[in-house]
Design brief:
Layout (H helix, E strand, L loop, with lengths): L1 H12 L5 H5 L6 H8 L3 H12 L2 H7 L12 H11 L12 H9 L2 H17 L8 H4 L17 H39 L1 E6 L2 E6 L8 E5 L7 E13 L1 H4 L5 E3 L6 E2 L4 E13 L5 H20 L10 H4 L8 H5 L12 H9 L5 H39 L9 H22 L3 H19 L2 E3 L2 H7 L4 E4 L11 E7 L2 E3 L10 H13 L6 E3 L9 E3 L2 H12 L5 H6 L7 E3 L7 E7 L5 E8 H6 L1 E5 L5 E3 L2 H17 L2 E11 L10 H4 L3 E10 L6 H10 L3 E5 L4 H11 L9 E4 H8 L8 H7 L3 E5 L3 H13 L9 E5 L5 H6 L2 E5 L5 H6 L2 E3 L4 H43 L6 H20 L22 H29 L15 H20 L17 H20 L11 H23 L8 H5 L13 H6 L3 H17 L2 H10 L4 H6 L8 H4 L18 H6 L1 H13 L8 H7 L1 H10 L2 H4 L4 H8 L1
Parallel strand pairs: 9-21, 9-24, 17-20, 21-23, 22-23, 24-25, 25-26
Antiparallel strand pairs: 1-2, 1-3, 3-7, 4-5, 4-6, 4-7, 8-26, 10-11, 10-20, 12-13, 14-15, 15-16, 16-19, 17-18, 19-20
Helix pairs in contact: 1-3, 7-10, 8-10, 8-17, 10-34, 16-17, 16-33, 17-33, 17-34, 18-19, 18-33, 18-34, 18-42, 19-33, 20-21, 24-27, 33-34, 33-35, 34-36, 34-37, 35-36, 35-38, 36-37, 36-38, 47-48
């Protein structure tokens, strides 16, 4: 069926059309297989029977064996790749260096400078007619014409163009190296993704890209399928196909009813084997990608001006959570129910990215500074122009002569250039750069600390973390399970008994139960190193049980060989609801036997008999159960052991039981034994937890284990201490405490529980999600809690996504968990999380250091240029010099200060919190203090410098006059003061020793010395372009001396106590506009203002857009950002839902049908309508509703408020929110 529809498309997309040659080798063509994969359910079964007879027939045509797989012969594999394609989707080409340069040139400030420079260039070549205009044009032409100076008028224009070129190249190079790093990271993630396939009857792990058509892949719970295939044999297999179909229900797959498995879908339960039938561009996901890729490449180029998006057609993948793993990258399912996201949506969402805390604060700050700079530069230009006009045409009453026009214009252009340079210096375009550099640097280094960061901002959010909800198994413990105690044949053995003491009957049943009723992929292999521990492969708890079999001097492998996996009659796989696993086998003498194992209190409840010392079943009464729990299970649990109960049940052959009726089947069991499995605490964990607690971070343990076990382990780890006031409860009790009569979670009840909660045992994934959400939404503390969560199972996905930072386990984690996470712990170790906290705080401090330095320069340079221009009609710092200063203070300083390595001291303080102003009072004190010192020096030099050094004054020099020594000294001193102040900026908490640890940062040292060297070159050889005259040694000495004064002055400032400077409190609050919708981020305003306002503010907005080069660089940062998808999930200003209830405008009865009150599609068109709710919410200045996605489901009322008060971006058609409304 698919042959016709897809053939032309296929021809376009299959890169090697040589496939035809090879189809003769196999009994089936690519097109037939593609057609087959488009069928579902029964249709597919019929089609396979009609065309191939049965699955074995299909395997024969593909020359593979359903049990042994491919031979693994290289020529055969190559042939298959030729015929059926490779398992990867060709990545999108990265942006070339030229494209990046073109992007950097889009910056408005630079464009203004370029235009000014070109005008200045043009005018300098223009000679007014008539030689004697000198007198008639007055001061305009005075004095500057001697020595052919007019000829060199072009130099300034050329120099500005040159420095613009420098800035552009530096920006482009930064973008380019980031893109390179990102792709490197990407490919590293890809190489790490492996999949289990059978080749030559051996199960091996292969990189996903090496899978070919005809491979037999083993699939299990938690896998993300890497290719399309047909199920050969499955146990209780359930697949989540929502990524392709949008259906959220799990689809049951069986070989006889619905065997079609599609790439990019998730295995939610069970296990099985599949025959791979389509890979790469021919798989269902691949087809969708290529369609998108084909349609959007053109669009993409025009619109997507963001660095580094993914390897595949960006549109979908980047907007999906940044994917991890090759299968994920290569086969990323479309995440929205409608299929791809529409063009229009992309336009709205490009700008409205979820900003991290730091980025929000910085953008706000940058915009405020930009505003101030804009005002200053405008005033500067106006004053200069007025002064010139009044002086020439009013006081000296000169007529405006036409032949003088070019000279006047030249003056105006010069004034304009001065204005623009003030602006250039004022706009701190280095801020986003500093953030990016700092984050990129941290991410690189965090790799060494076993943190694979998938979303750049997660690294910085981690520094603000106040709570960590950690799993127990594998994270706090070593995940090396060993059976250490057991209860069998009515005896409780404190250590594993000698097999001679046990009855043979019980022993046989036990060994069979463990060997057969566990995944056949779980094995214990001999140690690789001599004296090492045996290797545990597969599920660690099952390994512990297999270890018990080996300790009882038996072997599990012969039993498995006797009953291979395909002979198992029925398997009930483990899942979080059952908390047990059962396998049914057919007995040789007729009838069936089911072996069961699982959490002891759950399995024992279903037991009615138990084996006695002789191995004969005896009655097991409820009171025996209670005694067993008290005498066996609780003592084991209190020693921190996980208890597993093994049981069995026999069924008659006739009538055959109804296997689907689980409740009846999993009942009336006979208990065989209870095993206590130990999972020792990792040796480095207790110390790591102490460091967390010292750093003001609460660690909570969330585990599926029994409460006593969990409490014992929490004690060992130091999460709880005897005598403290803490809560350790299980999932049942937790839900009882936080839910009302109707069974809904109430935030007020939650607030009574979470502050003291330290251990949550027997918790389901939903409990984990509820807990994380409850802590995040809580308004108990003045700062919103920032929560990190660790998870490894498929079911941890929701909690990982909801948390501010989700950590997935690199070794034990399933693909689904990794995909939902922000950081992958490559060694599954809790102490790596502490490293992440350290790096996160370091990023925050690096940015603060840079800010402290940057703002000092900004303040001084702007004031100097402004007052200088007003008093002497010429800025003491020339345009080119300003650009050089801008280059040092932005690019170089951000490199130097953003790469400081972290120190242990970072973990000695509490988290900063979300509302703490970016600029602390100490920093404000430093900025003002150093600013005053620099201004005093510069103004002294400007107005009395010529007397001090006994040189000609450089003030009031005419147009095109040669550079003066006077102004060179000012420029040189200014730059040297910045250099020494850069050393001061290394400390932001008022420390005395600014040189502490300076040599640990070679980048810093080399940048300081490098800048100094270039400065010498500029002053001595810069000449006309840099408006510099060479200085002699004595003057250099004075300049350096004044620069060194900065270090001494820094010590003076450090002596002044902050308490004396009351007024600084206000200054430090500069950026503390609490993140509320009332004073929306100016930047968000730029990006999306309601239509009505848009008209009024268009002029202003254009200015702003131009002003901030910031946006250009935020684009780069955003390239690393996570997608919109999670943008809706992780909102910045989450606060409780209850706030809405207190406001009369929003009080809607709960009985309101769950339908948005105003259809948001109309809102799109009607600006007036759309403005009202926003202004309402502004009037009440209520915090924005928490977490768009989840709450929309929790309460219809929130949805309505959200859709109206959030602007177009969140409710444009096909956003997750919109699809949710339509479904409601």
């Amino acid at each position: 069926m698919g042959d016709l529809t897809n053939s032309d498309f296929y021809a376009k997309n299959q890169r090697n059309s040589s496939s035809a040659n090879h189809e003769g080798d196999f009994g089936v063509s690519v097109m037939e297989l593609r057609g087959l994969m488009e069928l579902r359910g029964g249709e597919a079964v019929v089609k396979i029977q009609e065309d191939y007879g049965d699955m074995d027939g299909l395997c024969q045509r593909l020359k593979t064996s359903p049990t042994e797989g491919l031979s693994g012969d290289v020529t055969d594999l190559e042939k298959r790749k030729e015929a059926f394609g490779q398992n990867l989707i060709p990545p999108k080409k990265p942006k070339t260096f030229l494209e990046l340069i073109w992007e950097a040139l889009q910056d408005v400030t630079l464009i203004i400078l370029e235009v000014a420079a070109l005008i200045s260039l043009g005018l300098s070549f223009y000679q007014p007619p008539g030689g004697d205009t000198g007198d008639s044009c007055g001061t305009a032409a005075g004095g500057g014409e001697d020595e052919g100076e007019a000829e060199s008028g072009w130099i300034e224009g050329a120099a500005i163009l040159l420095s613009v070129a420098c800035v552009v190249l530096v920006t482009a190079f930064n973008d380019w190296s980031k893109e390179k790093q990102f792709r490197g990271l990407q490919s590293r993630i890809e190489q790490e993704q492996k999949f289990q396939v059978v080749r030559g009857a051996q199960v091996i792990q292969l990189p996903v890209a090496d899978i070919v058509v005809g491979d037999i892949a083993q699939i299990k719970y938690g896998d993300l399928l890497p290719a399309d295939g047909v199920l050969i044999q499955g146990n209780d297999l359930k697949i989540d196909e929502s990524s392709l179909t949008g259906e959220s229900d799990h689809v049951k797959k069986t070989a006889d009813r619905d065997p079609m498995l599609l790439s990019g879908t998730h295995v939610m339960e069970g296990s099985g084997r599949m025959l791979v039938t389509a890979v790469g561009v021919n798989s269902q996901t691949g087809i969708i990608f290529t369609l998108l890729g084909a349609g959007e490449v053109g669009e993409e180029e025009k619109k997507e001006k963001r660095g580094v998006n993914r390897g595949c057609p960006d549109s979908v993948i980047t907007k999906v959570k940044k994917q991890d793993g090759a299968a994920a990258m290569e086969m990323q399912p479309l995440k929205s129910a409608e299929g791809g996201e529409t063009e229009e949506k992309k336009k709205t969402n490009v700008s409205k990215k979820e900003k991290s805390v730091l980025q929000g604060k910085l953008t706000k700050l940058a915009v405020q500074i930009g505003k101030a700079g804009l005002v200053m530069s405008a005033i500067t230009v106006i004053i200069l122009v007025l002064y010139f006009a009044v002086d020439n045409f009013v006081l000296q009453k000169r007529p405006w002569l036409t032949e003088c026009t070019p000279i006047y214009v030249q003056y105006f252009v010069k004034f304009f250039i001065i204005g623009v340079t003030v602006l250039v210096v004022a706009v701190p375009e280095g801020l986003p750069l500093a953030v990016t550099i700092s984050l990129a640097y941290s991410v690189k280094k965090m790799m060494k600390d076993n943190n694979l960061v998938r979303h750049l901002d997660a690294c910085e959010t981690m520094g603000n973390a106040t709570a960590i909800c950690s799993d127990k198994t594998g994270t706090l413990t070593t995940n090396r399970m060993t059976a250490v105690a057991c209860y069998i044949g009515d005896v409780h053995y404190k250590e594993i008994p000698d097999p001679g003491v046990l009855s043979n009957k019980s022993l046989d049943i036990l060994v069979n139960a463990i060997s057969l009723n566990s995944a056949y992929t779980t094995k214990i292999l001999p140690a690789t190193k001599e004296g090492g521990l045996p290797m545990q492969v597969g599920n660690k708890t099952e390994c512990g049980l297999l270890g018990l079999v080996l300790k009882l001097k038996r072997d599990y492998q012969p039993i498995r060989n006797q009953i291979p996996e395909e002979k198992l009659y029925k398997v009930y796989t483990f899942n979080s609801v059952r908390k047990s696993m059962s396998t049914v086998i057919k007995l040789p003498e007729g009838g069936f036997r089911m072996y069961s194992k699982g959490a002891s209190e759950i399995v024992l409840k279903k037991c009615t008999k138990i084996l006695n010392a002789e191995g004969e079943p005896r009655v097991f009464r409820p009171r025996d159960k209670d005694e067993m729990v008290k005498k066996v299970i609780e003592p084991m649990a209190c020693d921190g052991l996980r208890t597993i109960c093994v049981a069995y049940r026999d069924f008659p052959a006739d009538p055959e039981p109804l296997w689907d009726n689980e409740n009846d089947i999993l009942n009336e069991l006979t208990a065989v034994c209870v095993v206590g499995i130990e999972d020792p605490v990792r040796p480095e964990v207790p110390a790591a937890i102490v460091r967390c607690q010292r750093a003001g971070i609460t660690v909570r343990m969330v585990t599926g284990d029994n409460l006593n076990t969990a409490r014992a382990i929490a004690m060992k780890c130091g999460i709880i201490h005897p005598g403290e006031d803490f809560l350790a409860i299980d999932g049942k009790e937790f839900n009882r405490r936080i839910r009302n009569e109707k069974g809904e979670v109430e935030q007020e009840r939650m607030d009574k529980v979470w502050p003291k909660l330290r251990v949550l045992a027997r918790s389901s994934p939903t409990d984990k999600h509820t807990l994380v959400k409850g802590i995040i939404d809580s308004t108990l503390t003045d700062q919103r809690q920032v929560v990190a969560v660790t998870g490894d199972g498929t079911n941890d996905g929701p909690a990982l996504k909801k948390a501010d930072v989700g950590f997935a386990m690199g070794i034990a984690g399933t693909d689904v968990a990794k995909e939902a996470s922000d950081i992958i712990l490559t060694d599954d170790n809790f102490s790596s999380i502490v490293k992440a906290v350290m790096w996160g705080r370091n990023v925050y401090d690096s940015i603060s250091k840079f800010l402290q330095f940057q703002l000092t320069v900004n303040v001084v340079a702007v004031i100097v240029a402004f007052t200088g221009a007003c008093i002497t009609q010429d800025s003491p710092l020339k345009a080119v010099q300003m650009l050089w200063v801008n280059l040092i203070m932005d690019t170089f300083a951000s490199l130097a200060l953003a790469t400081e390595p972290p120190t242990e001291a970072l973990l000695m303080r509490k988290p900063y919190g979300r509302n703490k102003p970016l600029i602390s009072s100490t920093m404000t004190k430093n900025i003002l203090g150093h600013g005053i010192y620099q201004l005093v020096i510069i103004f002294s030099l400007l107005f009395v410098g010529e007397q001090i050094f006994d040189i000609d004054s450089g003030r009031n020099a005419p147009l095109h006059s040669p550079p003066s020594e006077h102004y060179t000294i000012i420029f040189n001193t200014f730059v040297l003061m910045q250099l020494f102040n850069e050393i001061n900026a290394r400390k932001i908490h008022g420390e005395r020793n600014v040189f502490d640890g300076i040599f640990r940062n070679p980048i810093f040292c080399s940048i300081v010395f490098g800048t100094f060297a270039i400065q010498i070159v500029i002053v001595q050889l810069g000449g006309k372009p840099f408006s510099c005259t060479p200085l002699d040694l004595e003057k250099w000495g004075w300049c350096t001396f004044l620069g060194l004064g900065e270090l001494v002055w820094g010590q003076v400032i450090a002596t002044i106590p902050n308490s004396k400077l009351r007024f600084l409190r206000g200054a430090g609050q500069l950026t503390k506009k609490n993140e509320m919708p009332g004073d929306e981020d100016m930047n968000e305003d730029n990006e999306e203002i309601d239509h009505a306002e848009r008209e009024l503010r268009r002029g202003q907005v254009l200015w702003f857009r131009g002003l901030s080069r910031i946006q250009t660089q935020i684009r780069v940062v955003n390239a690393f950002r996570s997608s919109l998808y999670e943008g809706l999930e992780k909102t910045d200003s989450r606060s409780s839902i209850h706030n809405f209830m207190t406001h009369p405008e929003f009080r809607l009865e709960d009985s309101t049908p769950h339908i948005p009150l105003i259809d948001d599609t109309d809102l799109e068109d009607d600006p007036a309508l759309r403005k009202t709710p926003q202004s309402l919410s502004r009037a009440g200045s209520q915090p924005q509703s928490p977490n768009k996605n989840n709450n929309a489901i929790d309460s219809g009322i929130n949805l309505t408020i959200d859709t109206t008060s959030k602007s177009a971006a969140s409710s444009s058609p096909s956003s997750p929110l919109h699809s949710l409304e339509t479904s409601l």
